[in-house]
Design goal:
The structure is a single chain. 43% of the residues lie in helices and 16% in strands. With 349 residues, it is α/β, with parallel strands linked by helices. A seven-stranded parallel β-sheet has the order 3-2-1-4-5-6-10, sandwiched between helices. The structure holds nicotinamide-adenine-dinucleotide (NAD) and thymidine-5'-diphosphate. Residues 88, 185, 195-196, 199, 211-213, 218, 220, 255, 287 line the site of thymidine-5'-diphosphate. Nicotinamide-adenine-dinucleotide (NAD) is lined by residues 7-8, 10-14, 34-37, 39-40, 60-62, 82-86, 101, 105, 129, 131, 160, 183, 185-186, 192.
Length: 349
């Protein structure tokens, strides 16, 4: 029985990864380590948390002694590290939170794993989940490849880039068995509504303005979160130690085109006159240092490990809308309290 520590499992992607591993590998023992920040929500795991192979540990990856202690206690075979501060806008207003969690937190996990594993790395793995944003911003052409030079532009992406560098440095210096993957923008159920798609769905539902930064011309490459979880599974089990894989759906959209596609689905689902939702589109001041375009080349993952995304964007977007409409209470609980304060400060209500 493998003991796997998954960090950040109460968040958006982490909860899908935990669900995927619990359902696919009943022989593994999964430990979810999460401090439950504003973005962590145990409700995301309601359907699997009674499973006997699931364990929750509440704790902070920046707490050095606590992290060492849990490694000593449980002697994990592998780590899948997702815990992070993940929102670019928050990194602009509070960069230090990103530096502590994403850089110091990752270093703590690496140190704790190293001190337990160092004498025998056989069968051990530190899998670090990262983002395509470490590569910076593309112009109109080109793609991010695994060997594209790092050029992070926001405090978020710079903190993730630092954590990637630390992971590689521990592999090179201490022979730590590591794998890194860098994924494009994820969408799907359980995403905190500070990110574009769930924020827009919630605003459209409530007939509130949809804030589009600048002219809406920035491009993102979107991947359904369930496909990210399946890619992590394939990489975790098949990638060679020390390798990096880019994960993406070859699915670029300008923000404005994406929002129009979403508005069309929302009009249909809510039985509204065509154009009702799009009338809420409101152009607002651009994000500082807003990256123009991300686009991932995931051919290494597709060709070497045989992974492919499972669905088309339009299908994934419709499934996502259905999830948020069916989980109104989840959304209502999430947008109350702390988040309301953030929203009012960010969008001036
Ligand atoms: P999220 O913000 O939804 O969840 C982050 C989780 O980490 C939360 O449950 C939070 O409570 C936990 N956490 C934060 N600080 C912690 C700390 N100090 N100690 C313990 N737990 C802590 O993030 P997400 O969108 O699910 O992203 C997960 C990972 O995937 C991140 O590493 C992110 O950089 C990466 N990633 C995200 C995307 C995306 O589109 N969302 C794309 C590529 C990569
Ligand atoms: P986001 O979901 O924050 O992800 P990221 O910044 O990591 O790509 O934003 C996706 C795109 O949508 C990005 O170009 C910024 C833009 N955006 C808006 O136009 N309005 C918003 O209210 C938000 C949150 C994002």
């Amino acid at each position: 029985m493998k003991k796997i520590l998954i960090t950040g499992g109460a968040g958006f992607i982490g909860s899908h990864v935990i669900r995927h591993f619990i359902n696919s590998y009943p022989e593994y023992k999964i430990y979810n380590l999460d401090v439950l920040t504003y973005a962590g929500n145990l409700e995301n795991l309601n359907d699997i948390d009674k499973n006997k192979n699931y364990n929750f540990i509440k704790g902070d990856i920046t707490d050095t002694s606590f992290i060492s202690e849990i490694f000593r206690e449980h002697n994990f075979d592998a780590v899948i590290h997702l815990a992070a501060e993940s929102h670019v806008d928050r990194s602009i207003s509070s960069p230090m939170d990103f530096i502590y969690t994403n850089i110091v937190g990752t270093a703590n996990l690496l140190n704790a794993a190293r001190s337990i594993w160092e004498n025998n790395y056989e069968g051990k793995l530190f899998y670090h989940v990262s983002t395509d944003e470490v590569y910076g911003s593309l112009g109109d052409t080109g793609f991010f490849l695994e060997d594209t030079s790092y050029d992070p532009k926001s405090p978020y992406s710079a903190s993730k880039a630092s954590s990637d560098h630390l992971v590689r440095a521990y592999h090179n210096t201490y022979k730590m068995p590591v794998i890194i993957s860098n994924c494009s923008n994820n969408y799907g159920g359980n995403q905190f509504p500070e990110k574009l798609i769930p924020l827009a769905i919630n605003n459209i539902k409530n007939m509130k303005p949809i804030p589009i930064y600048g002219k809406g011309e920035n491009i993102r490459d979107w991947l359904y979160v369930v496909d990210h979880a399946s890619a992590i599974d394939v990489i975790f089990h098949n990638a060679a130690i020390g390798e990096t894989y880019n994960i993406g759906g070859n699915n670029e959209w300008t923000n404005i085109d994406l929002i129009h596609a979403l508005c069309k689905i929302m009009d249909q689902k809510l039985d509204r006159k065509p154009g009702t939702s799009a009338s809420l589109i409101t152009f607002v001041t651009d994000r500082a240092g807003h990256d123009l375009r991300y686009a991932i080349d995931s051919s290494k993952l597709q060709n070497k490990l045989g992974w492919t995304p499972s669905l088309e964007f339009e299908t994934g977007l419709e499934k996502t809308v259905d999830w948020y409409l069916a989980n109104e209470e989840w959304m209502n609980r999430v947008v109350s309290g702390e988040y309301k304060k953030y929203y009012d400060e960010m969008y001036g209500e």
